[in-house]
Specification:
The protein has 8 helices and 10 strands. By secondary structure, the protein is α+β, with helices and mostly antiparallel strands. Strands 4-5-6-9-8-7 form a 6-stranded antiparallel β-sheet. A two-stranded antiparallel sheet has the order 1-2.
Length: 243
């Protein structure tokens, strides 16, 4: 996980635990750089995340402050922030036990929707992956992932049992950029009932995502399905109107 994301997560937890009170001054970049033994640029990236989430704000000439509604924007350790697309292992691996069950792993040619999402031709091979991600011995999420072989070469069973994102960043030395997501509610299907232990009446949270490298090349077209009590998507919406 990038250093600035780790720092943002630590500071978010501190705010959630009320170590910093609403409307109180927030430590400046110099103090945070010293505390985390890192550069001010790294701290600035971390603070930008918190500002985007609405947890802190800046006043010109006065410094940075904790938002007045920060105590309403609390996040548990098994919730997904709208800006996080770092993978389940990086997101939870330090505090939870992560395992993967490979349900399907094939290489094939893409259909039309996959060609459009991944910006590839019908002759470009893709990985077709279905995995059950297990957190602390409990089924957490079903992942249906498509990746272009030419963009992410060398994926194996061993990598799928661990972390694809870690492989992309550490072994292929690629940098992950942005992601486009669609979120919807759904009824459980047969796979949800089988692998997520869903009942007929349990709603499902489904997130469809196209993820890009920092070079703007799509590397993942995925659909993930969470049981209602496992997948929470935290979204902060900031008004564009002046008050």
């Amino acid at each position: 996980m990038a250093k600035y994301i780790e720092i943002a997560n630590t500071l978010r937890t501190s705010i959630s635990n009320h170590e910093y009170k609403n409307n109180d001054p927030f430590p400046d970049q110099q103090a945070l750089s010293k505390k985390f033994s890192t550069s001010r640029m790294t701290i600035q990236k971390a603070l930008n995340i918190l500002k985007t989430e609405g947890l802190i704000y800046s006043k010109q000439g006065s410094g940075t402050f904790v938002s007045s509604n920060a105590d309403l924007i609390e996040q548990t350790d098994l919730e997904i922030n709208q800006y996080q697309y770092i993978g389940t292992t990086d997101l939870f691996g330090k505090t939870h036990k992560i395992n993967s069950k490979i349900i399907k792993f094939t290489i094939r040619y893409p259909d039309k929707s996959e060609q459009n999402a991944l910006r590839i031709s019908k002759k470009d091979l893709i990985y077709d992956i279905t995995r059950l991600r297990i957190v602390d011995e409990e089924p957490y999420v079903l992942e249906y992932t498509k990746m272009p072989v030419k963009v992410i070469p060398g994926i194996s069973d061993d990598i799928l049992k661990k972390s694809i994102y870690h492989y992309i960043k550490s072994d292929l030395n690629l940098k992950i950029g942005s992601a486009f997501r669609k979120i919807r509610a759904d009824k459980p299907n047969l796979f949800d009932k089988k692998f997520l232990n869903c009942k007929n009446e349990d709603p499902i949270l489904e997130i469809t995502q196209t993820a890009f490298l920092n070079s703007d090349i799509p590397f993942e077209f995925s659909r993930v399905r969470y049981r209602y009590d496992k997948g929470n998507m935290v979204v902060f919406v900031k008004s564009s109107f002046e008050r």
